[in-house]
Design goal:
- The protein has 131 residues and is α/β, with parallel strands linked by helices.
- Helix content is 38%, strand content 18%.
- The chain is built from five helices and five strands, in the order E-E-H-E-H-H-E-H-E-H.
- Strands 1-5-3-4-2 form a five-stranded mixed sheet.
- Helix 1 packs across helix 4.
- It is globular.
- It starts with a strand and ends with a helix.
- 21% of the residues are buried.
Length: 131
């Protein structure tokens, strides 16, 4: 776990639909969420509505530098920093496909995201502490 940050929706993606456990977007679910958002708001920055995503270690390093943030800032539960990714950099969301699609249609451009290192990044970090 690397912490929590506000990320632009354009940098959030999902695994391909042909992988086990992934679902295609069901329009009825998106419409239902949109109706809820119209009544209650979407809560895109509320902790209970955040999504989780994996991020490559190098992408995280670049984003921290670009955002002028430290890794510790991401772990501060009282602070929700904006994490600015570069161009085509993507994080892979673990869940929340319908919520994010509805949020995008609702007009949101950012979302609160829990950040986790992807498998390769975890292996790279582990290698640093061996010996």
């Amino acid at each position: 776990y690397q912490g929590c940050a506000i990320v632009k929706l354009q940098h959030l993606g999902f695994e391909a639909n042909n992988l086990t456990g992934t679902r295609e977007i069901a329009e009825k679910n998106v419409k239902k969420l949109l109706k809820t958002f119209e009544i209650e708001g979407c809560g895109h920055l509320e902790p209970e509505h955040r999504v989780s995503a994996t991020i490559e270690l190098e992408v995280l390093r670049r984003a921290l530098a670009k955002s002028n943030l430290t890794r510790e800032a991401l772990l501060d539960p009282t602070y929700q920093p904006n994490l600015m990714l570069e161009g085509e950099d993507l994080m892979t969301c673990i869940y929340g496909k319908h919520r994010l699609k509805a949020g995008e249609r609702f007009g949101e451009i950012t979302w609160l995201v829990d950040l986790y290192l992807d498998g390769r990044a975890y292996q790279q970090m582990s290698a640093l502490f061996e010996d």
